[in-house]
């Protein structure tokens, strides 16, 4: 039996605690927030998209950063096992569009309570983690090689960990000693839920490389005044294409939303994951408002609509094509006199309208802030973590799981699954 200390009572921390207890270990969980696992309550718009009902192979195609790192942990604990676990904890699940898995109740609180029950035999202590307790390891004695080395091509022996983690000093000043310390503190998104980046500081104390954390799965800021004019307008079954300079880097159909600061919604969040260095590249989005119609089919549809609404002014002629809040914005961008009757609109003007509807352009000027990002991209370099056990290659007895690692995926339940499978990998390989 090992003495296990877990820093962070979020999705990864509670999953690891429950799994470690079932392996017969003595588990203590440190949590600096009054209420554990608060971030779960804001996932999936309060419904908690707990995983995605796909195979491990399919899953990896949706991982944006370092998918190969998850090969072992995801293979050992795929989405099917996550679903099986939550159902064993009394949560009835359902599968929705895109194989997204939700509780039938549509209440994220049910998932939170299930994780708390899973980890109920672990000791939960309300304290933060200020400092890792580290001790230096003696240098390894060099063994004589069984076969003489080629002097021209000597083998370079990889240096093992120089440190051992033996516990954590809490923000209270109390020391918590342990055989294994798991850092499962999340990233820095949604800081009000407890994600304050403490895990990054702990990792750096052990000499880990930190990949700069940036917001991912986040709304996008646009200085386009038209967005503000249409704020609150939700579009369904549209296609959003994201361009880096002149190259399309994302193209997907779904739902999106105009806001006072730009664009948001599921499509936008997924597109945001593809943004690179915004200082080096220019980005814009194009929205196809009628993806089911080709340009010729749309032209014919417009011609029929305008014939039926022949005596209506330009804006009124769009009533069958566009939502009401978009109609005046479209007419303004179209550049046509609003008083023009539908039967006076020329072929050329209809062709221009087709282009606007199929290629509605929105400039992308910045990412939304970390405070409102769904997840954080970046974190502890996975080059310095064992993918099978989640143990640090810098310090024995130190482990990482969940969002604190430099692994992230698109929307659809993938990021919570990453938290669950890396947590299980830690517990099952102690």
Please name the CATH topology of the largest domain.
Answer: FAD/NAD(P)-binding domain
User: Mean pLDDT, rounded to whole units?
Assistant: 92
Please state the structural category: alpha+beta
Main β-sheet, spatial strand arrangement = 18-17-14-15-16-13-19
Architecture overview:
There is one protein chain. The chain has twelve helices and 23 strands. The chain is an alpha+beta fold and 430 residues long. It folds into two domains: 252 residues, FAD/NAD(P)-binding domain (3-Layer(bba) Sandwich), CATH 3.50.50.60; 150 residues, no CATH class. The protein starts with a strand and ends with a helix. The mean pLDDT is 92.
Summarize the structure.
By secondary structure, the chain is an alpha+beta fold.
């Amino acid at each position: 039996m090992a003495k296990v200390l877990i820093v962070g009572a979020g999705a990864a921390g509670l999953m690891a605690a429950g799994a470690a207890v079932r392996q017969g270990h003595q588990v203590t969980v440190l949590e600096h927030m009054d209420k554990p696992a608060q971030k779960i309550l804001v996932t999936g718009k309060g419904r908690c998209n707990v995983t995605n009902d796909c195979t491990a192979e399919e899953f990896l195609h949706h991982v944006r950063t370092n998918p190969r790192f998850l090969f072992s942990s995801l293979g050992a604990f795929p989405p099917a096992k996550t679903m099986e676990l939550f159902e064993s904890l009394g949560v009835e699940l359902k599968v929705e569009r895109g194989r997204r898995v939700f509780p039938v109740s549509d209440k994220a609180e049910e998932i939170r309570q299930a994780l708390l029950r899973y980890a109920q035999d672990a000791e939960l202590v309300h304290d933060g983690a200020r400092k890792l307790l580290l001790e230096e390891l003696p240098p390894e004695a060099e063994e004589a090689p069984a076969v003489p080395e080629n002097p021209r091509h000597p083998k370079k022996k990889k240096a093992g960990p120089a440190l051992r983690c033996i516990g954590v000093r809490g923000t209270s000043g109390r020391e918590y000693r342990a055989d294994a310390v798991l850092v499962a503190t999340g990233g820095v998104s949604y800081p009000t839920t407890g994600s304050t980046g403490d895990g990054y500081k702990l990792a750096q104390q052990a000499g880990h490389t930190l990949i700069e954390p940036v917001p991912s799965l986040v709304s996008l800021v646009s200085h386009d005044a038209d967005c503000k004019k249409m704020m609150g307008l939700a579009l369904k079954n549209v296609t959003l294409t994201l361009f880096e300079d002149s190259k399309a880097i994302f193209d997907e159909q779904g739902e999106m939303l105009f806001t006072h600061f730009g664009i948001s919604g599921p499509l936008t969040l997924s597109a945001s994951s593809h943004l690179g260095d915004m200082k080096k590249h220019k980005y814009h989005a194009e929205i196809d408002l009628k993806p089911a119609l080709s340009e010729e089919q749309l032209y014919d549809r417009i011609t029929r609509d305008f014939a039926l609404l022949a005596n209506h002014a330009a804006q009124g002629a769009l009533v069958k094509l566009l939502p009401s809040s978009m109609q005046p914005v479209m007419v303004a961008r179209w550049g046509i006199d609003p008083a023009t009757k539908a039967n006076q609109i020329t072929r050329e003007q209809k062709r221009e309208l087709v282009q606007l509807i199929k290629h509605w352009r929105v400039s992308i000027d910045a990412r939304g802030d970390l405070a409102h990002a769904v997840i954080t991209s970046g974190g502890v370099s996975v080059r310095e973590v064992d993918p099978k056990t989640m143990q640090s290659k810098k310090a024995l007895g130190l482990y990482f799981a969940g969002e604190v690692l430099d692994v992230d995926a698109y929307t659809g339940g993938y990021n919570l699954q990453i938290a669950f499978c890396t947590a299980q990998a830690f517990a099952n390989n102690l």
